[in-house]
Model the fold of this input.
Amino acid sequence: MKQEINYSEVWRNPIHFVAFGFGSGTIRFFPGSWGTLAAIPFYLLMVNLSIYLYLAIVVVAIFFGFWICHVTAHDIGVHDHSGIVWDEFVGFFITMIAAPKGWVWILLGFLLFRLFDIWKPWVIRWFDRHVQGGIGIMIDDILAGICSLIVMQIIILVFPSLT
Done:
């Protein structure tokens, strides 16, 4: 199903602008990947925060995302439009919880998160298909972020010399 919307509305409505990843979701090919890339500068602003403040921001981003994704999907009339990429921001932030600093880890986090987000193992796929609204838009990326976080932490434990 083609998901045509008026992208000029995305740039005029602040809620839609954020839901579309500050405009990154308007790129018509691989918007999820562009949204994840757009999350990296925000992650870089958060990387030096304490783990508690980082986690607090992630929790706020999740609940904020439930709302902005719901409002945007309702306003444009398309549930989980591919351009709504705030969920990719949150999934990437989850992936990067307690990750070591450095571009190698950012690249690994990006690749792991995109893998789980695209692949959608059965549990993630089930939630993606059965939960609606803003929570439904966000839940698959939250779960993909958690899976990526687990794999990232296993890699850190198995290969401590990389940190």
Remarks:
- The chain has one domain: 7-162.
- The chain has a mean pLDDT of 94.
